[in-house]
Amino acid sequence: MSFLVPLYVHPAEDPEAWRRLTEAADRAYGVVVNPADGPGTAPDPAFTAAGEALGTAGARLLGYVDTAYGSRPSSEIAEDVRRHREWYGVHGCFLDRVSATRDAVRRYRAIVRSLRRSGVSPVVLNPGVHPARAYARFADLLVTFEGPWSTYVAAFSRPDWTRHHPPGRFCHLVYGVPEALVPLAVRTAGERGAAVCGPVCGEPPNPWSDLTPALTGAER
After folding, report:
1. What is the tens place of the pLDDT at every residue in 84-143?
2. Count of CB atoms within 10 A of residue 178's CB?
3. What is the pTM of this model?
4. Residue among 22, 27, 14, 23 nearest 52 (CA)
5. By C-alpha distance, which of 63, 77, 56 is closest to 30?
6. d(Cα 122, Cα 139) in Å, to the nearest integer?
7. 216 DSSP assignment
């Protein structure tokens, strides 16, 4: 099991979290870099320094880009990715709020192909649910669950088509996990066909403001 890490807290606000993340970089599938719900309008020196430290430690950096469920123009998405690469040295991207519908497949396929042509890799898509099966054909990693632990344990259905893809293509992001149950959340993701996960203890409005104990705690 490896871990996708969306750490949505400023490095100056919680430098200790970023230090612990850097020390555990070898266990992360990727770290989502998100200075301002995207790259922002100018480079943030604190994120630049954090990205350099993570890169030196071997972490794979993914720039956060909001796709607004397919309503954002492709040019804006490409520009966000360009800024992430230029300012923070990211390798790939984390496309958030991705549509799950079949009607949007062609649009997202074109976006992913364009990003790959420019050297962006990997491309992670986050619809937060199981989307139309075609998305799995072009996403490097597909987040098929994002939500609270209470929902994850009570109601999860895995479509048959997911069994035709390796577990390394799927990720589950679960928040509100009691700390003592984080190891159970990791095992549950594996049993449900996801080899990448991100169980955190935080709650909305920003559950991703701290690291998963699975990355930096006793499990290591």
Report:
1. 999 999 999 999 999 999 999 999 999 999 999 999 999 999 999 999 999 999 999 999
2. 10
3. 0.96
4. 22
5. 63
6. 8
7. H
- Longest Cα pair distance anywhere in the chain, in angstroms? 45
Structure tokens at 130: 């199981």
Q: Which two tokens stand for residue 201?
A: 């203890």
For residues 25 and 12, what is the distance between their CA atoms, to the nearest angstrom? 19
| pLDDT tier for residue 3 given thresholds of 50, 70 and 90 | very high
Give first-to-last CA distance, the chain, whole Å. 12
Helix, strand, coil share of the chain (percent; to 5): 45, 20, 35
Residues whose CB is less than 8 angstroms from the CB of residue 15 and which lie 6 or more positions away in sequence, other chains included: none
**Cβ 215 vs Cβ 5: under 8 Å:** yes
pLDDT grade for 216, boundaries at 50, 70 and 90: confident
**CA dist list (Å): 123 to 63, 93, 126:** 10, 5, 10
Percent over 70 (pLDDT), the chain: 98
Amino acid at 117: R
